[in-house]
């Protein structure tokens, strides 16, 4: 497993790669997709690829290089990439990849943790690709603590074909659930069986993905797995009412990052929901001719950011700005779906929301609104403030580092 931490830290902190938590959540359609083609979904589509075997000391060194705490390391780990069958955002058969980290101990039935990662725009930055240290570090942390940990790459990232349907929680849910199924098949070949109750967590985009997976597990989307606990970190759960206004204001979220997030949003949602016929309708020249390529998974984050302007006024046409300020049509409907992540259900397992005050990417109002939405349904979730920790100058990334450690400890103290 390669660990170019300096390259990765720059790419993550400056390339809008872990900013907005994907919040397109359509629970009913997500559950329907989880039940489609169940005879093939979650089966391994290729031989697993061994990425590394680390002793406990080597695991500590890898986590230290990634900027993550090492205090919870109890075991060495084995890391493998799985390529498995799933469905795309339209329910058609496809494949996806993901990382599985198993502790090197004698536990034949370890507890299973699903960690869904923050936003990535470059295929090779996905957890299973071994191109960085930050992205796989949470799974490494959980595995070294004795859990079986999985981190799906999502559709279109890692070894997955096509483009990534960013911020589409239904497809993140199906990819994550099918990764759990693939993990069970893989572990059976190693003489191990995961426990049925899944401990679900995720960061940023993956925070909403974690809630989508948790809801699907609770609703019986899989005959084997059940929800054991859910603990998302720093999500943008209220996109229309909290995240998008912050992007437009350009105060809490730096304007350059707001440009990158907005571009990724419009390009991805146009593929999903047909927001415009041609990029020039919403993007100004010369960016209209670049945006699809910048977000097709082949452009490294630093190159993507360098190719975009420093303000929304320079990026968007009047129609594009009006679409953000006054959502209508397919865009408004997609936002309504996005903001349903925390609404209409009550977790039947332990649940917490983790966040950091002053988060410059997933603004704190998101967590406030998510908690209020759960409370309106009858669930008073505890929120855990992670304190003023920064990573490479980012409070948002710092919340991932501290949140992973805090959740590892919490999961360890929950009854099996």
Summarize the structure.
With 416 residues, the protein is an alpha/beta fold. The chain is built from 15 helices and 9 strands.
Structure description:
By secondary structure, this protein is α/β, with parallel strands linked by helices. The protein contains 15 helices and nine strands. The strands form two sheets. A seven-stranded mixed beta sheet has the order 1-2-3-5-4-6-7, with helices on both faces. The protein has a two-stranded parallel ribbon with strand order 8-9. Helix 2 packs parallel to helix 5 and helix 5 packs across helix 6. The longest helix is centred in the middle third of the chain and has 20 residues. The N terminus is likely disordered.
Keywords:
416 residues, alpha/beta, 7-stranded mixed beta sheet, two-stranded parallel sheet, 9 strands, disordered N terminus
Total count of strands: 9
Write down the oligomeric state: single chain
Distance between the termini: 31 Å
Percent of residues in β-strands: 5-15%
DSSP helical segment count: 15
Spatial shape: globular
What radius of gyration results from the CA coordinates? 19 Å
Largest beta-sheet details: 7 strands, mixed
| Main sheet strand line-up | 1-2-3-5-4-6-7
Strand-pairing-aware structural class: alpha/beta
One letter per element, helices H and strands E, the order comes to HHEHEEEHEHEHEHHHHHHHEHEH
Share of residues in helices: 25-40%
Low-confidence stretches: 1-38
Average pLDDT for all residues: 90
């Amino acid at each position: 497993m390669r660990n170019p931490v300096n390259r990765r830290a720059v790419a993550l902190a400056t390339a809008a790669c872990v900013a907005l938590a994907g919040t397109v959540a359509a629970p009913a359609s997500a559950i329907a997709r989880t039940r489609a083609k169940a005879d093939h979904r979650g089966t391994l589509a290729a031989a697993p690829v061994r990425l590394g075997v680390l002793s406990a000391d080597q695991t500590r060194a890898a986590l230290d290089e990634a900027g993550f705490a090492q205090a919870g390391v109890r075991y060495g780990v084995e890391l493998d990439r799985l390529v498995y069958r799933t469905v795309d955002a339209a329910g058609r058969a496809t494949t996806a990849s993901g990382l599985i980290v198993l502790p090197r101990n004698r536990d034949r039935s370890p507890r299973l943790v699903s960690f869904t990662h923050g936003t990535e725009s470059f295929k090779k930055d996905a957890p299973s690709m071994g191109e960085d240290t930050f992205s796989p570090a949470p799974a490494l942390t959980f595995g070294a603590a004795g859990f079986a940990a999985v981190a799906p790459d999502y559709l279109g990232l890692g070894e997955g074909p096509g483009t990534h349907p960013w911020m589409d929680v239904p497809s993140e849910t199906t990819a994550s659930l099918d990764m759990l199924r693939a993990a069970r098949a893989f572990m059976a070949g190693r003489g191990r069986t995961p426990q049925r109750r899944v401990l679900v967590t995720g960061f940023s985009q993956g925070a909403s993905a974690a809630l989508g997976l948790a809801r699907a597990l609770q609703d019986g989307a899989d005959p084997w797995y059940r929800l054991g606990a859910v603990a998302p970190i720093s999500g943008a759960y209220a996109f229309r009412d909290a995240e998008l206004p912050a992007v437009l204001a350009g105060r809490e979220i730096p304007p350059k990052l707001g440009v990158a997030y907005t571009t990724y949003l419009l390009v991805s949602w146009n593929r999903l929901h047909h927001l415009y016929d041609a990029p020039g309708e919403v993007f100004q020249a010369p960016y209209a001719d670049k945006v699809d390529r910048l977000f097709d998974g082949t452009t490294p984050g630093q190159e993507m950011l360098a190719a975009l302007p420093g303000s929304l006024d320079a990026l968007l046409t009047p129609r594009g700005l009006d679409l953000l300020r006054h959502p209508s049509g397919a865009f408004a409907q997609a936002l309504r779906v996005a903001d349903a992540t925390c609404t209409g259900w009550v977790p039947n397992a332990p649940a917490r929301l983790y966040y950091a005050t002053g988060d410059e990417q997933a603004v704190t109002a998101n967590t406030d609104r998510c908690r209020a939405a759960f409370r309106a349904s009858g669930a008073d979730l505890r929120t855990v403030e992670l304190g003023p920790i920064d990573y490479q100058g980012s409070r948002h990334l710092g919340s991932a580092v501290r949140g992973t450690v805090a959740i590892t400890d919490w999961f360890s103290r929950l009854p099996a």
